[in-house]
Amino acid sequence: MTVRYPRPLRPGDRVGVTSPSSGVAKELRGRLDVAVREIEARGYEVVVGRCMDGSTHLSAPAAERAAELTGMLTDPTIRAVVPPWGGETAIDLLSLLDFEAIGRAEPTWVVGYSDMSTLITPLTLLTGVATVHGSNLMDTPYRVPEGLRSWLDIVAAPQGGPFTQTPPGRYRSGGYDDWQRHPEVREFTLDAEGTWTRLDGSGDVDVEGRLIGGCVETLGPLTGSPYLDSSRFAGDAPLLVYVEACEDSAFTVCRQLHGLRLAGFFDRAAAVLVGRTHAPDSRTLTQHEAVLDALGPLGVPIVADVECGHVAPFLPLVNGARGRVLHSAARSGIVQTLD
């Protein structure tokens, strides 16, 4: 399957906002307004959908959420779609989305992480259209630390040109900003130091492949389904598979990764990237040990504490992009090329 890239966004383009999983509670609408203005400041028109209710864990019934997302992805006037954030059960949309119609339509950028992995990873695998695993809409107003890029920069980047991201060396040790009291907050609290860690051994890493991956908690339930079949993705090219955990214990993450490996999701992995996490260790198993237990048998480099998960700041990865991972005692980084 050939990877197809949506054309770069340019001023005047329309960006759709919908909640395929969880909507936005009334007390957080102030933050939503700030985030929408951030996109408008780039010269884009924002179209906010009807599926945005935040009174429960779902923004609308599944059929309505699926119809709105499909409608945005097949509307030639909408060039990108971004949710306010993830949620819990976007899995209920998969059997309702019209992947054939989406695949026939002109490609549209879809951005998100967390429960959005349930949708963007199958979208790339089934249609060949590149998607962005990066910060959601509500995180967009934050200023991006040096070395990283905003998803807004990536969807506007020229196709074919490489771009590099490097770890800033700092991250958030825990907690969240109070968007209800401070909807305008734009500075990350990065109060801890740390960079990437090689788990499988020592030595420098320099490896290339096509990027694919997402959140362990939401991809794990798709194991063995047609929505997570990477066997034909990007021909026979090696893959750079990335995974990250939100909140599950090390035991649960270990089981999920074993299942994904047994189902063949890592069969073509040239390396595995693991997002930094605040998910808890178990009594006799740490999160790092869980990854090694499940993925060590692959015999490929495993680089952990990458900024591609639920811990701020965020390093967006493009599903389908050609990537090159570099890691040594002197430097770390990833180069992505949209070709």
Please, could you describe this protein's structure?
With 339 residues, the chain is α/β, with parallel strands linked by helices. 22% of the residues lie in helices and 22% in strands. The strands form three sheets. It has an eight-stranded mixed β-sheet. α7 (250-262) runs parallel beside α8 (287-295). It is globular. The mean pLDDT is 97.
Order of helices and strands: EHEHEHEHEHEEEEEHEHEHEEEE
Average residue-wise pLDDT? 97
**Broad shape:** globular
Helical residues, percent: 10-25%
Number of helices: 8
β-sheet strand percentage: 15-25%
Using DSSP, what is the number of strands? Answer: 16
Could you give the order of strands across the largest sheet? Answer: 6-16-15-10-11-12-13-9
User: CA-to-CA gap between the ends?
Assistant: 13 Å
**What is the C-alpha radius of gyration, as a whole number of Å?**
19 Å
What does this entry show, briefly?
This protein has helices at residues 29-40, 62-74, 99-104, 117-127, 151-155, 216-219, 250-262, 287-295; strands at residues 14-17, 45-48, 78-82, 109-112, 131-133, 162-165, 170-171, 192-193, 197-198, 205-215, 239-244, 269-275, 302-306, 317-319, 322-327, 332-337. The strands form three sheets. The chain has an eight-stranded mixed sheet.
Secondary-structure map with pairings?
Layout lengths: L13 E4 L11 H12 L4 E4 L13 H13 L3 E5 L16 H6 L4 E4 L4 H11 L3 E3 L17 H5 L6 E4 L4 E2 L20 E2 L3 E2 L6 E11 H4 L19 E6 L5 H13 L6 E7 L11 H9 L6 E5 L10 E3 L2 E6 L4 E6 L2
Parallel strand pairs: 1-2, 1-3, 3-4, 4-5, 10-11, 11-12, 12-13
Antiparallel strand pairs: 5-14, 6-16, 7-8, 9-13, 10-15, 15-16
